[in-house]
Structures are given as structure tokens and as C-alpha cells.
Amino acid sequence: MKALVSVKRVVDYNVRVQVKSDGSGVITEGVKHSMNPFDEIAMEEAVRLKEKGKLTEIVAITIGGAKNEETLRSALAFGADRAIHIKEEGDVQPLTAARAFAAALKKEGAQVFFAGKQAIDDDANQTGQMVAALLDIAQATFASKVELDGGKAVVTREVDAGLETLEVDLPAVITTDLRLNEPRYLKLPDIMKAKKKPIETVTFADLGVEKGAALTISKTSAPPKRSKGIMVKTVDELVSALKSKGLV
Amino acid sequence: MAGAKPALSPYLNEDHDAFRVQVRRFVERECTPHIDAWEAAGELPRELHRKAADAGLLGIGFPEKLGGVDVPDRFYQQIVVEELARTSAGGLIASLLSHGIASPPLMYAGTPEQQQRFLRPVLAGERIAALAVTEPGGGSDVANLRTRARRDGDHYVVDGQKTFITSGMRADYITLAVRTGEPGLGGVSLLVVEAGTPGFTRSPLQKMGWHCSDTATLYFDGCRVPVSHRIGAENAGFMAIMMNFNNERLMLAAQAWASAQLCYEESLAYARERQTFGKPLLSRQAIRHKLVDMKSRIDAVKAQLDLLTWRVSRGQTPIADLCLLKNLATSTLESVAGEAVQIFGGAGYLRGAKVERVFRETKVLSIGGGASEVMKDLAAKQLGY
Ligand SMILES: Cc1cc2nc3c(=O)[nH]c(=O)nc-3n(C[C@H](O)[C@H](O)[C@H](O)COP(=O)(O)OP(=O)(O)OC[C@H]3O[C@@H](n4cnc5c(N)ncnc54)[C@H](O)[C@@H]3O)c2cc1C
């Protein structure tokens, strides 16, 4: 059974993101990038399932410019067998990405599409769901546990009320949540071997996908600065301060 | 080339970068949150060795057939040291990587059986190895070490003491330098002594720094060690020890550089934030000049460190240059750490500041692995003066 895993190149989670002075977005030039942490979890899960014999092939897929090759090499070091690079520069919105992934999923005949539940750059949390809708297949989002058996996946989801377990028919989309696993450290021999694994380059046109903007970003601004705190000397002082602000 | 990442070093490629990212991740997740607890405990947990081995860090530079990771150059070891140094705890490097000085003799001169028994479990993080050369009677004068190993049938009977031994309390295998022959460098051999061997006891030592590294005095009292535990030929141990020192000095220089770089970054960040007399500290010429002086010295060390790492990677053994590099790096660290504490003011004297810890740990790098004075003597001799 084959799995397709999407991996996005995002500004590294350690970077203190800065808004461009014209408010058109955040500064990405010269800033450290890495694989979206939720996608690392998706990769890790796919690799574990392959190690357990539940998957036979893992194909990593990304959309972006030349630098995305680095992200694919990480995915290959994780244990993907090969990779697909949809080479497109510029901003890609969730619906466009979903169309491309849906086309690739169909073309590959993969049974599972793994994706992070969201990417930490725009936090859209839409792509996986849209892939499922476009192909009219099952979806199990926010996975905290995944089991594959026969033609089915049993997925435990983290929902507001607690844990929900779904059984879905394959092919299906599974998006991964934070507590699903802890991604491994990539070892040097795997990093080196990854360079020899194949990466196929395609474009939206090859996949029959039209790049369209369904959304426009009107403004990006920094969160308001936190104002200075005050020191209180006693619990009474604290309580009255909270009361005066109407917080208790 | 708009947007392209400029190459910062002629020696490093994308494999080094990718490896560094993983080591950094390991250090941030598995080490940094626990350093203070380990420093208080006076030792590292054994579990850390297993985790580091699982992450592929302990075996770097050791042969794959023993569970190691073959590497094309020495920059990979340097990256491990540099990233561990980001924690500010030098003892973490010394103790987690004590096999880096204890195990190379086994790699170069051990029999396949010895390698399977004493090296493989160490690279897997299941056992801990220490190197014991220094004695209470003297550390610099290695050729005159006095711990005696007398042959008795198929055993050696070992009598003597070793001191200042890193990982000495926890070590399962001690790579022990002993006198098996005549006085001087031609009578030294290396034995592997296992923990629990009758006649081998140890006691812990308290130190100025490197608190998370257990350091011990080892006592050998009629300790019987099988002859099959000898590494290499009898009386041929001195060369192995010297080869080991060259390697250790390169690593100590890398550690000193990385610690100095950390001090620089910490004090620069502090000077930016700290206000004195209504202005940021960084706006003061006295402080700006301190910082650029720190940087220029640190960068010079790095240039020489990388050049020698490259030369050693190509199989060269520039003994004098390695001695002088060690001195350059450690004296730079002494000065940079001192200035960093100065920039921090009182905050730099208090526990909790990284620069405080580094400052306490400068001296050990100028003494251990060959003290500065001894390094100068050796370099002068090697240069034919
Ligand atoms: C924390 C720590 C960890 C250590 N870990 C280990 C370990 O794991 N294994 C191990 O074997 N050793 C270890 N050592 C020992 C270390 O290698 C020695 O301390 C070092 O080699 C110096 O030896 P010494 O302390 O006996 O000093 P000495 O040899 O007594 O020297 C004292 C001083 O005199 C100077 N000096 C010596 N001879 C001369 C001379 N001819 N001319 C001018 N000056 C001279 C030295 O440079 C030094 O400044 C460790 C030391 C420390 C502090």
C-alpha cells in the first residue's frame, strides 16, 4: 500500500517572525526555513507504518520553488522512498495546493494521503480537508493515533470533547496532530542516502491544475505589544487589582 | 544572486548543515531542559548515552561495522561538539563524549574481539568508557607514569592510582595507561579494565566547573586484568596515547571556540537589552569595542580550527599546529569569557547566566589534554627549536 505525504517548507518555528513594513506579509528572505512540524509528524507516522509492514511505499510531495528540494531531502532522510516536487514559485493557497495534491494522489494511486493538520506559517488548516472533498474520499483529521488494516484506517482524533475514533475506508486523507508521535532524529547515513533517492519534478500544468487565488490578503500586522506588568506586594493587592479591572 | 544563501565556509556542504540541524534539535530537546538538574546531580544519566546513540551521535567517526557512522571528514565531530557547547555546560561534552578519548585506541589497535566487547556497547550507549592516563604524581609527564602492571601468567597485576578521570565514577570500561616495561615512553601499555574487577575502586572529586561530568580518582590494588585486555603490543602504548592527544586537542579547541562564540552571542544580546544611564549598553563605545575585539579573536580561532580540522581530515598530523591551536583557542576563551562576565555585570557573576558557567569552565580547557605550558614546549620541540 502506497502513501503520499505532503511536506511544506515554512519559516522555522524558532524564528521570531517579522512583518514587512508595507504590511503585505512577513519577511521570509534570509530567514531560516524548515519542514512544517506537523508534516514531520505525518512523515514519522508514515515511516512507522512502513516499518510495521502496513505500507510498502512512501512518496513525499511538496509545492514550491527550488529551495523546497531541501524539504524533500529531509523527507527522504526520514524514510520516504521517492519524492515529487511540484515546482511553482510564489504564494500557493490551500485550494490550489489541494487540487495539485488530489491530482497527484490519483495519478499515484496512493491509498493514504498524510498531511499535517495545518502549516505553522498561515495556520489555514484546510488543505487536507479540501483534498478529501475534491476526490470525494474519507477524511480523518487531527489524528492522535493511526492504524491501517486491510482496506480501512482506524484513526483516533483529538476533538474538543475528548477523543473520537473513526473507522474510514481507504483511500482516505489523514491529517496529523501534535501528539501522534515524536519525530525521530535524522541520522547522518540517512541524510546522505537521501541524496541518492529520486525526485520527480512536475508543474501545476502537468497535473492539470489551474493556479487561482480564492483569497486575498488585505493586511498583515504584528500582534499588539504586551504592556509592562506591575508588581504587587500582597495577595489582597492582587485581588483588588484584578477586581478593579473587572477580571474576577 | 538574490535570495541565494551565501556559502559561509569552504569546508561545509548541505550534509553538514542537515546534520547540524538534527544535533541542535537533539540538544534542545534532550539536553538543555535538564542541564541544571544534571549539574546538581554531579553526573549525566545513563539514559542520555542511549538517547544520543539512538540519535546517531555517539558513533560519529567510528566504523560502521561496530555500530558507528563513517564520516568523510572531521567536521561532523566538530559539529557535535559545537552544538553540545550551546548548552554552556562543558561537562556535558566531556562526559557524554568521554569515549571520544577512551575508545580510539580500541578502534585503531584493538582486536576484533576487543572491539565487539568493549567498543560496540559503548557506541550503542549501553556502556560508558573513560581514559585514565593522569596520575596523582603528574599528568603532563606521561612518559613517566607509574601505575605498574606486572605480568603473572595470563594476567597483569595492576597497582597504582589515576586521578582527574572524566566519567571515572560511571565508566564500565577504563582504557588504562600502565607501565609494563622499562622507565620512559618505551615501557607504557594500554589495558581495558572492567568495572567490578576485584582490586579496582574509585572515589569522586569535586570541581570548579564541569559539574555534570563525574570525575574520579581510580585505585588499583593488586587488580588482575587478563592479558587479552591489552590494546596493541606490549610497551607500544605511548604512541597510541600521543595519537589520542592530537585528536583530543582538536576537539578541545572546538569546544573552546564554541564556548567563546556562545559568550559573545550572549553578551551581545545582553548589551542590546540592558539600559544603563538611560541608554542601551550597546551604544557605549567601551562595550562596542569589547564586543568587536571578542569577535575578531573568536573568528581568528575559527579560521585556524577549520583549517586544521580540514588537514586532519586529510590524514595529516600537524602536532605543533594542534598544540598552538589549543592554546590559541583556550586563551581566547579565557579572555572572551572574562569580558562576557564583565559586560553582564553582577548578573554575570550569578548562577543562571550561561557566561557564568562558561567562565568557571575556562581553566579546565587550558589545563586538560595538555596544559598550555606543556603545549608550548611540545610545539617548540616539534618545530625543531
Ligand atoms: C576536569 C578534568 C578532567 C580531566 N579528565 C582526564 C581524563 O579523563 N583522563 C586523564 O588521563 N586525565 C584527565 N585530566 C587530567 C589532565 O589531562 C591533567 O590535569 C593535565 O594533563 C595536567 O597534568 P597535571 O594536572 O598533573 O599538572 P602538572 O603536570 O603537575 O602541571 C602543573 C602545571 O605546571 C606546568 N608544567 C608542567 N611541566 C612543566 C614544564 N616542564 N615546564 C613548565 N611548566 C610545566 C603545567 O603546564 C601546569 O600548568 C583531567 C583534568 C581535569 C582538570
Automatic annotation (TrEMBL), chain A:
BP GO terms, sorted: carboxylic acid catabolic process
Superkingdom in the source lineage: Bacteria
SMART domains: ETF (SM00893)
Named cofactor requirement(s): AMP
Sample GO molecular function, one term: electron transfer activity
Residues in Electron transfer flavoprotein alpha/beta-subunit N-terminal domain copies: 23-211
Keywords, ordered alphabetically: Electron transport, Transport
Function comment: The electron transfer flavoprotein serves as a specific electron acceptor for other dehydrogenases. It transfers the electrons to the main respiratory chain via ETF-ubiquinone oxidoreductase (ETF dehydrogenase).
Quaternary structure note: Heterodimer of an alpha and a beta subunit.
Family: Belongs to the ETF beta-subunit/FixA family.
Protein name: Electron transfer flavoprotein subunit beta
UniProtKB/TrEMBL annotation, chain B:
Residue ranges of domain Acyl-CoA dehydrogenase/oxidase C-terminal in the record: 235-383
Cofactor(s) for this UniProt protein: FAD
Keywords: FAD, Flavoprotein, Oxidoreductase
Cellular component, GO annotation: cytoplasm
InterPro entries per record: Acyl-CoA_dehydrogenase, Acyl-CoA_Oxase/DH_mid-dom, Acyl-CoA_Oxase/DH_mid-dom_sf, AcylCo_DH-like_C, AcylCo_DH/oxidase_C, AcylCoA_DH/ox_N, AcylCoA_DH/ox_N_sf, AcylCoA_DH/oxidase_NM_dom_sf
Residue ranges of every copy of the Acyl-CoA oxidase/dehydrogenase middle domain listed in the record: 130-223
Top-rank lineage group of the source organism: Bacteria
Record domain Acyl-CoA dehydrogenase/oxidase N-terminal: where: 13-126
Gene Ontology BP annotations: fatty acid beta-oxidation using acyl-CoA dehydrogenase
GO MF entries: acyl-CoA dehydrogenase activity; flavin adenine dinucleotide binding
The keyword Nucleotide-binding is assigned to this record: no
Pfam families, sorted: Acyl-CoA_dh_1 (PF00441), Acyl-CoA_dh_M (PF02770), Acyl-CoA_dh_N (PF02771)
Transmembrane parts of this sequence: none
Family: Belongs to the acyl-CoA dehydrogenase family.
PANTHER family cross-referenced by the UniProt entry: ACYL-COA DEHYDROGENASE FAMILY PROTEIN (AFU_ORTHOLOGUE AFUA_6G10880)-RELATED, MEDIUM-CHAIN SPECIFIC ACYL-COA DEHYDROGENASE, MITOCHONDRIAL-RELATED
Protein name in UniProt: Acyl-CoA dehydrogenase
Organism: Hydrocarboniphaga daqingensis
